[in-house]
Specification:
- The protein is an all-alpha fold.
- About 80% of the residues lie in helices and about 0% in strands.
- The protein is built from 8 helices and no strands.
- Helix 3 packs across helix 7 and helix 4 crosses helix 7.
- It is globular, with a radius of gyration of 17 Å.
- The protein starts with a helix and ends with a helix.
- About 55% of the residues are buried.
- Keywords: Membrane, Transmembrane, Transmembrane helix.
- This is ZIP family zinc transporter.
- It comes from Streptomyces achromogenes.
Length: about 250
């Protein structure tokens, strides 16, 4: 029971970063270059965590095939869900809305887009949180690198998305209600990652970890890097590599 509670608490910690980012994005006029810079750094952090903490772990547990197949399945599943949501107004859910052509639509412009945005945020957040719970299965101690990576990446995600929601005319109650719900879902996802996945064989655990990795990597390429590129395209490579190295250093200390 103690491990279940711990999994939930770590999931809540990581999810709370979304609320922190939302508060910054909704309450402050954050310069676009700052948003892009933080988004690029967060993308680098997540890429490193996916490489060394998720896919690497899946490979060590079950070999190349389950790791590769699971990663591909995760990417396909995320992309399929993302395509479905994009048609309902959630294509630019992580965009801060600085360019009208890539802004989030208001409910008046596209009915149901608010619900699609909420579902999109859930699609982005659940795989990240689930792997936090799964990481507890390896020796009973959570991977602090994974928690740190998810937390660091969640801040710019919440910041950029909430800024876009505000520009699309959505109220404070909706914005913070969405991110509070996602933070709660992160808690549940971490608990399920520990309790449900923990009952499976090591090969299945490795495959599930790889599926989450594939979904996260697809999310980075589809939603985080495009937002970062818009305003930091001359420096995005250096910033992303910096985030990668910070996460790499944390995983090897």
């Amino acid at each position: 029971m103690a491990e279940v509670v711990e999994a939930g608490l770590w999931g809540l910690v990581a999810g709370s970063a979304l609320l922190l980012g939302a508060a910054l994005g909704y309450g402050l006029r954050v310069p676009q270059k700052v948003i892009a810079t933080v988004m690029a750094f967060g993308a680098g952090v997540l890429i490193s965590a996916v490489s060394f903490e998720l896919v690497g772990e899946a490979y060590e547990q079950a070999g190349v095939a389950p790791a590769a197949i699971g990663t591909l399945i995760g990417a396909i599943a995320y992309t399929g869900g993302n395509v479905w949501l994009a048609r309902r107004g959630a294509r630019h859910r992580k965009r801060s809305g600085h360019e009208r052509a890539e802004a989030q639509p208001s409910e008046a412009e596209q009915g149901g887009s608010g619900t699609a945005l909420a579902l999109g945020a859930l699609l982005d957040g659940v795989p990240e949180s689930a792997v936090i719970g799964v990481s507890l299965l390896d020796g009973g101690a959570v991977s602090l690198v994974t928690v740190a990576a998810v937390f660091i990446s969640n801040v710019p995600e919440g910041l950029s998305s909430s800024a876009g929601m505000k520009k699309a005319g959505r109220g404070r109650g909706y914005v913070f209600g969405v991110w509070a719900a996602i933070a709660a879902a992160s808690t549940v996802s971490a608990v399920l990652g520990y309790t449900v996945v923990g009952s499976f064989s090591p090969a299945v655990i490795a495959a599930v970890t790889a599926v989450a990795a594939g979904a996260i990597l697809a999310m980075i390429a589809d939603t985080m890097i495009p937002e970062a590129f818009d305003d930091a395209h001359l420096a995005i490579g250096l910033i992303t590599v910096s985030g990668f190295l910070v996460s790499f250093a944390l995983s090897h200390t």
